[in-house]
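User: Thanks for the earlier help. One more: Acetoin utilization protein AcuC. Can you show the sequence and predicted structure together?

Assistant: Of course, both are below.
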Amino acid sequence: MSRAVRVVWDDGLISYDFGRGHPLAPVRVELTMALARELGVLDGVEVVGCLPAGDDELALVHDRDYIASVKEVQKTGRPDLRRGLGTEDNPVFARVHDASALVAGATLAAARAVWTGEADHAVNVAGGLHHAMPGAASGFCVYNDPGVAIAWLLSQGATRVAYVDIDVHHGDGVQTMFYDDPRVLTISLHETPRTLFPGTGFPHETGAEGTAVNVALPAGCGDESWLRAFHAVVPPLVRHFQPEVLVTQQGCDSHALDPLAHLMLSVDGQRTAYAALHRLAHEAADGRWVAVGGGGYELVQVVPRAWTHLLAEVAGTPVDPATPTPAAWRTLVDRRTGEVPPATMTDGREPRWRDFSEGYDPADAVDRAVMATRNAAFPLHGLDPMP
């Protein structure tokens, strides 16, 4: 069995469950892991369990009184609205601390495997809770697992960590935690905060020495435009930064079918982005890659296929997009959700994009968004913002 790739999974991760009717339904990761198993994606990788993050590990980025409040809410079942616990976005649920700490522990296990050399790549599809703030829950996120993992890497001696967030929502919690720390480069590509939660992530938010980078894309942006923006910003900055570890958040709520946002990507466009991040990990971080899930609220048609492609990409065994979804998995989908499952692993797209080096079009809203980011961030890194 290869030790180059590690998938962190514990069935307890589906206990991170805000309850019936909440958009962040744990069935999405249950169906993801089932699809990956049925397609043989996990056959050549090491699947390992994890322990919950301890208080000292959570306190690398979270206030200790906030951790105590989460525990108190778990004990009493009473909301703490000052801490964002018991809101519509973050309802109180049984074992809220235990479940949230386990998600953080899974991402920590992935980071530990990569940092110690036990694995080149490691992934936790149940992670990516990037909105949680140091002292409050936010946006379906109680503990910020990528933030905990990045802070742990720094505590172990890492001097440069790059975090790339491709969720449709701004990675505001992670940005906040490292905004003044030049050791951490945070790059977030997201729908413009003018039309989507959390209302942050403008290009002028540049942090310490330009190490916070935000690409705010217009609603309606599809595969080709999104990939053009990605390649115009992410690879140049990450290659220049030369991180020791690349941490990526793969929220798939940028898909056209996602009910909570307004971008128009396909599963094929998302799969193409995962491949680009994989290449970037090898080009800029000597292959050290920690990947986590994130948002994604089309629970059957999108999340399982997108993140199975992610797992396959991390494993180095990409799934042919034309592959039919297995009959056993389709039966599971029907039993668990009553929905009609997708028949294949593709949306039938073959994304192509025009490289930004071919010229800037000021009449194009995506190009204007890219230039706003390049103008704000590139000079702070000694890079030319012009294509």
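User: Great, one quick takeaway?

Assistant: The chain has a mean pLDDT of 97.
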